[in-house]
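Dear colleague,

Following up on Tuesday's group meeting, I ran the structure prediction for the two-component complex that the binding team flagged. I've pasted the input sequences exactly as they went in, so you can double-check that nothing got truncated or mislabelled along the way. The structure tokens for the whole assembly follow below. Feel free to forward this to whoever is handling the docking comparison.

Inputs:
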Amino acid sequence: MLLAIDKVRKVFGDHVILDDLSLDVAEHEVVALIGASGSGKSTLLRCVNLLTEVDDGTIHLDGEEITDPRADPDLVRRRIGLVFQSYNLFPHMTVLENIMLAPVRVHRRSSEQARAQAMQWLDRVGLAEKAGAYPDRLSGGQQQRAAIVRALVNSPRLLLLDEVTSALDPELVGEVLTMIRELKSDGMTMVLATHEMGFAKQVADRVAFLDGGRVLEQGPPEQVLGDPVEPRTRRFLARIIEAGRL
Amino acid sequence: MSHTPSTRQQERIAYRRGRAVRSVLLAAASTAAVGTALTVGITGAPGWERVKESFFDPETAVEYLPEILAGLWLNVKLLVVCAILAMALGLLIAVLRTLRGPVAFPVRALATTYTYSFRGLPLIIVIYLFAFGIPGLRLQGTPDVLWLGAAAIIVTYGAYLAEVFRAGIESVHPSQIAAARSLGLSYRQAMRHVVLPQAVRRVAPPLLNDTVALQKDVGLISLAGPIDAIRAAQIGVAQSADFTPYVVAGVLFVLLALPLIAVTDWVTLRAARRQNAGS
């Protein structure tokens, strides 16, 4: 297993967000996390990236326990990419500078090398002519694609995507989803929290439904989204269909 | 491409032009009225002749101008040195106050105590304490009074600027730090490359405003003895038994502040525009 989450618990005050949650992700696998707002999808991703400390349980990455307090979080994060709902590009840097920051400062690559690699990626996702632009000059979809590139240039073992299309205007969602689909064909291992059930169905190898701080049900997308076993999953999907999102 | 405005539009243009001419005329008339009232009010006052002699005597002004200007050069040098060092100190203190962890506790506590006490302490008292207290210790290599006075200004303003910088640091959204850390940057790297550049840009207007305040407060160094513009004016007043040198020094300080104030207003305006454009 590339990622092994075992009985992870997270509590904020007396609110249990993650309740002994377990989830395994194999190499090259794409797992979609679905569930209502507040079901713990984002918290789980933040725990994996060590931005949030777990209150119990363990997380292993490539067989190494990353929740061990002796593990260096900076070293762990170098192997995990995280993309946020609100892009979080650095507004005072150009797109190119945003992308080059970690390769140069963290991975100690030469700036020529980092620039060449960044431009190669930007070219591939059709943002080459935006390299010198500041983020506020880009559309939401372009910002999000730049943010994904920023995570990818560090060659992460695992890419975490936290509702990456939720802040986008509907007509901009497609370009970001296309990019994720391409990453899947590259063999990138991904865990994505999403509200796009149609997309989860297309791109995910496995869908996990989070409810009450646990993975209530998981399996192939056709089964979980098409013929769920659990009544709560059915109810959740019924609400989604009602809202016209499936 | 050539578009002939419709008669309606031509009417509108003519009307607006008429209004503009009227506004200019009204402004001129109103300014003249206020100016006349002020002049008559002041020059018509019973004591005006005496005041004119003892505050606005051209001969005394010309006589002491060279000395006051020489003193002002010291103020300018002090301003540059104090502004740079106070900003450096303020930034350092602000960063120290954000440090976390038990090892940093004494550093944090010291930095907090410093900003609390020096923001409350009047600058005059700090200058007296530094300029007369420190030499009293009779330590080897005690610097000149000028440097001690400058140090007093730096530590006092450093405390104010630290708070300005801290406000800037806190205004950077935590998601920016999360994004930086998620890329593998250490806390220090995230501060240096992501948080501080944004923080400093945001607080540029209040920072410059404090620099304007600093430019006149460097004059307080005259209390410690060095001959700056204020001290030179004071000597002039004592010698000529006329207050004109003070007025000369005051005018020079205003002239010195004008460019700085103009830059501050420009930066503030630009920041406000950017804020509005960003939303």
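The longest helix of chain B spans residues 58-98.

Cheers,
M.
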